[in-house]
Automatic annotation (TrEMBL):
InterPro entries: GDSL_Rv0518-like, SGNH_hydro, SGNH_hydro_sf, TAT_signal
Pfam families found in the cross-reference section: Lipase_GDSL_2 (PF13472)
Originating species: Streptomyces liliiviolaceus
Occurrences of domain SGNH hydrolase-type esterase (ranges): 221-407
Keyword Transferase carried by entry: no
Xref: CDD domains: XynE_like
GO MF annotations in UniProt: hydrolase activity
Identification of the protein by name: SGNH/GDSL hydrolase family protein
Gene3D superfamilies in the record: SGNH hydrolase
Length: 419
């Protein structure tokens, strides 16, 4: 198999407004209107509840793949009896034409295979239609699809793009092998034999919801590459939000929250980095997601270390306050994570270390967030607190290996997520 190349062309996010069928989503927050949360499907929802089980925040655009079928592999955090999928053309500049869309469970014991589990292939529809056109700057949510979707299961979301729809909205750093069939509509094929190319990005698909009998809601992790998973083992689901989901699944059923990963590698709080800033994408990637009860914010290291560098801790504090204000307006609890050390990385300086520690002091002092996850205290080297412990370092002195990701997730107080 060959990996397909990618290119970024980031521009400002519009907000997502959730709904069912062929409801178009997208520009409300950009124009000051509130995005809606998709949480009802008529009579059936009266006895059950929609919950977000997976997310990938749009991080930029890539070259289109005309004539291809794109088989995205996504992993559920919680399960349900029905499913719906969010497809995004939010960063596109032309209408996105989808010739077909399907969903299936990935074949058991084959986490790196494009093969679907026999009997699980389903056609996705949008307002009853199999073929749709998504305007530039918008998202759509599929019709509900009856399918038993277990927790901690890989799903195959396959989209066929028959023509050139312009820049493709994608999540660049999926840390997941996804599959491409470059020779036409292969969306309904179970064997996966036609998927001879691979990519490590997710194309167009940005969310999956499931229908559940309980309503504990979901947790969103808003962050940068440390949340996106850089440094962890690819195609193994060992990012810290993955481990957090594992911990939550061990709780009683009425406390098993879904976990949505809104990490974007290179993201910043205040300025556009890779993708819009955390403030600019808050509506689209957090507030409009399904059933959100709690937000964990792990942002700020790129503001400190990357040019133009933020040298004023108060500016980051003000950004945190704005996130909390907007989340509280939606009834969402916010947990703030301290900024982890990056001593030894090429961008580290004594001045930037002072800013990092000052910001962490603001976070720990209270008054900013509803609760604090002190990630810095968990991973720093006691003998050199400007650096992480060697056991957690994949070698770049900034990101975390699997052990470091696990340490972060295991330090989160689960009672802070459901108060």
């Amino acid at each position: 198999m060959v990996e397909v190349g990618r290119r970024d062309a980031c521009r400002a996010l519009t907000a997502v407004a959730g709904a069912l069928a062929l409801t178009l989503l997208g520009t409300a927050a950009a124009h000051g209107g509130p995005p809606a949360t998709p949480d009802r499907t008529g009579a059936r929802a009266a006895a059950a509840h929609w919950t977000g089980t997976w997310e990938a925040a749009a991080s930029g655009t890539a070259a289109p793949l005309p004539g291809a079928s794109i088989r995205n592999v996504v992993r559920t955090s919680v399960g349900g009896t029905a499913v719906r999928v969010r497809v995004s053309n939010r960063l596109g500049t032309l209408p996105l034409v989808l010739g077909a869309a399907t969903l299936a469970r990935q074949r058991a014991n084959a986490p790196k295979s494009p093969q679907a589990l026999s009997g699980t292939m389903r056609t996705l529809t949008f307002g009853g239609r199999k073929k749709i056109t998504v305007p530039a700057g918008r998202d759509v949510v599929s019709d509900p699809l009856t399918l038993n979707v277990p927790a901690a299961t890989n799903l195959l979301v396959t989209l066929h793009t028959p023509g050139d729809s312009g820049p493709a909205t994608y999540h660049r750093d999926a840390l997941q092998t996804n599959f491409l069939a470059l020779d036409g509509n292969r969306a309904t094929e179970t064997s996966g034999a036609a998927y001879k190319a691979t990519t490590t990005s997710w194309y167009y698909v940005t969310g999956v919801d499931v229908l559940r009998p309980q309503a504990p809601g979901s947790v969103v992790a808003l962050g940068d590459s440390l949340t996106d998973g850089s440094g962890s083992t690819p195609s193994a689901n060992r990012r810290w939000p993955d481990r957090l989901a594992e911990r939550l699944r061990a709780l009683p059923a009425d406390r098993r929250q879904g976990v949505l990963n809104a990490g974007v590698a290179g993201n910043r709080l205040l300025l556009e980095g890779r993708g819009p800033s955390a403030l600019a994408r808050l509506d689209a990637d957090v507030l409009s997601r399904t059933g959100v009860r709690t937000l964990i914010v792990m942002e700020g290291v790129n503001d400190i270390k990357s040019a133009p560098n933020q040298t004023d801790p108060a500016a980051l504090g003000a950004a945190y306050r704005e996130i909390v204000r907007r989340a509280h307006a939606r009834g969402i609890r916010v947990v703030g994570a301290t900024i982890t050390p990056f001593g030894g990385h090429g961008s580290h300086t004594a001045a930037r270390e002072r800013v990092r520690r000052s910001v962490n002091q603001l976070i720990r002092a209270g008054g900013l967030f509803d609760a604090v996850a002190d990630f810095d205290a968990v991973v720093r080297d006691p003998s050199r607190p400007d650096r992480m412990r060697a056991a957690y370092d994949p070698g770049d002195h900034l990101h975390f290996n699997d052990a470091g990701m696990r340490a972060l997730a295991d330090s989160v107080d689960l009672t802070d997520l459901s108060r």
